[in-house]
Amino acid sequence: MAAFADGDSSSSSWDSDDEYQKFIQKMNPPRITIDNTSCANATIIHVDSANKYGILLEVVQVLTDLKLIVKKAYISSDGGWFMDVFNVTDQSGQKIMDESVLEGIKDCIYKSIAPGSCFLPSRRRAIVEPSSDYTLIELTGTDRPGLLSEVSAVLTNLDCNVVNAEVWTHNKRAAAVIGVTDRKSGLAISDAERLCRIKERLRYVFKGRSRDAKTTVAMGVTHTERRLHQMMLEDRDYERYDKDRANANPIPMVSVVNWLQKEYSVVTMRCKDRPKLLFDTVCTLTDMQYVVYHGSVDTEGPEAYQEYYIRHIDGSPVNSEAERKRIIQCLEAAIERRVSEGLKLELSTGDRVGLLSDVTRIFREHGLTVTRAEVATRGNKAINTFYVRDTAGSSVELKTLEAIRQEIGQTVLQVKGHPDHPKSPAQESPTRFLFSSLFRPRSL
């Protein structure tokens, strides 16, 4: 272990909003530099700034939202200064050479951490900015087959149009952030009585046997993935019985040990690499009120390795076995939540009210359950991604897929990754989908 300098153990340094702190930040604006010559296979981004609680998450979030792949990272934020180096590539694994894109990256990072920027409140819920475009609905509860179908059907019956949504399931728990508009006006729903009715209906649908569901309505926009991590952490999705753990996917290797000489706790993680892994782990550590003082990340291979030197926000290292176990459990859950269990289906078609309800109903009628979903509307087009599996946990049979695609439309619903599924035909009459059962109203 390298002999790092001692950091400031006072939690007040993270919370201070006095004029001196503001002056320091103003006199030391962030410096973002990009180096495209030192590394043959990655673009190097250097970020230097006055330190502030949550700044690491803010930078990682920007890189993730820009769809950059972090191959390596070096983190140092002891004392009053934050210095990070990120080796990144684009989605295809190539260096970023376009100067306009590089300037855009610098600008986004600067705006997110510059003096006066709006940091995400790292120890509270993700920020919600006022918006008249749509109303946000947040749901947590017990997962079960057909849950998304039931939720979307209720919203359709209540004259709500789903314009965007993201749904995660993990360890028998489910969380969803859904953006809806009024069916007639196309605007956000603001009527208090109607919102209360929507909340009550959805809470009833989401209610589980052992825990009550939680339903929240907000007028605004939020960072959806950030919020989903918070919701599932609050819902304690990291708790599981040993028999459930034995049937889970390969367990990530997470360890937490104390380095007593420097009063750090050292967290190491090894697991299969995947997109957004760095964001997921940093997000969880931040929400658990831990500060990363030093760290390194290496994903140049099939396995990702992350090492962080952390303290609690109050300046103390991990001080009990229960706390150590909880960190391990929560990081394992953070790694697993986004792992896509099931077959990937992509839907692209003209948007309309009730589309999500009809599509998920068809999945349910063919014995499939949705394990994760991303729903988006771009202009007048719906771009949706679903991860589905058999309700018994088995892989989806080819005949089931073909039956679903016949009902929805061959070119509208694309299958990704099924070993026995042939590539879709290049051409198909676009009018075929218009006359499919998907567009004929049906009772649930």
Structural features, described:
The protein is an alpha+beta fold. Helix content is 30%, strand content 30%. It has 13 helices and 16 strands. The chain has helices at residues 12-15, 19-27, 55-65, 99-113, 147-157, 192-206, 224-234, 242-246, 277-287, 321-337, 355-365, 398-408, 431-434; strands spanning 31-35, 43-50, 69-76, 81-89, 135-142, 160-170, 173-182, 214-219, 253-259, 264-272, 290-298, 303-312, 343-350, 368-378, 381-390, 413-416. The strands form 2 sheets. Strands 1-2-4-3-11-12-10-9 form an 8-stranded antiparallel sheet, with helices on one face. It has an 8-stranded antiparallel sheet with strand order 8-5-7-6-14-15-13-16, with helices on both faces. A hairpin with a 2-residue loop joins strand 6 (160-170) and strand 7. The radius of gyration is 23 Å and the shape is globular. The protein starts with 11 loop residues before the first helix and ends in a 10-residue tail after the last helix. Residues 1-17, 120-125 and 424-444 have low confidence and may be disordered. It comes from Urochloa decumbens. Binds amino acids. This is ACT domain-containing protein ACR. Pfam families: ACT. Residues 136-218, 344-423 form the ACT domain.
